[in-house]
Amino acid sequence: MRPSLFVREVVKNTGSTARDHLANERTFLAWSRTGLSFMAASAGLFSAYSLGGGERTSTSDVDAHALLPRRVREVVPSCLFLAANGVAFLGFATKHYFRVMNELKRGNFVINRTGLGALTAFTSVNTLAAIGMLVSPNRFWIVAKPERNEDASEFG
């Protein structure tokens, strides 16, 4: 019988404890490195778009959001999705590291299915959304085109 996805499965750890703790540490570092890579991708994407300049609106507008170049406004949601992936990876890595460490001290090992599946789904959706927003920003809510009032332009 195959174990359920949502049932916590604990198996006995009968090997070298030092080896298992070192493997847990390497796994933590790999997950952390992936999370930091997502955060760096977010910062790099924002920097690449913000250095490009773009049109600016008049400084007479009070709205600070309008002073940002349009290209930067388009890329900010994508950057936030990538940064959220980084935070998710770092949070998962930390939680998983301490959970496995505590179980190894008890002579057990917890097989993690739910957290890994949730993290994979979360980062997949976020990454696809970020790429979609970059490729076609007009299809998403992030680029609000100003409504033009035809009647007002006729009167002055």
TrEMBL record:
Domain DUF202: 19-102
Keyword Membrane: yes
A Pfam family hit: DUF202
UniProt subcellular location: Cell membrane
Keywords: Cell membrane, Membrane, Transmembrane, Transmembrane helix
Stretches assigned to coiled coil: none
UniProt-listed PANTHER family: DUF202 DOMAIN-CONTAINING PROTEIN, FGR18P
Superkingdom of origin organism: Eukaryota
Main location: membrane
Claim: Transmembrane is one of the keywords in the record: yes
Residues annotated as transmembrane: 28-49, 75-94, 115-135
Name of the protein: DUF202 domain-containing protein
InterPro entries membership: DUF202 (IPR003807), IM_YidH-like (IPR052053)
Bilayer disposition of the protein: Multi-pass membrane protein
Single GO cellular component term: plasma membrane
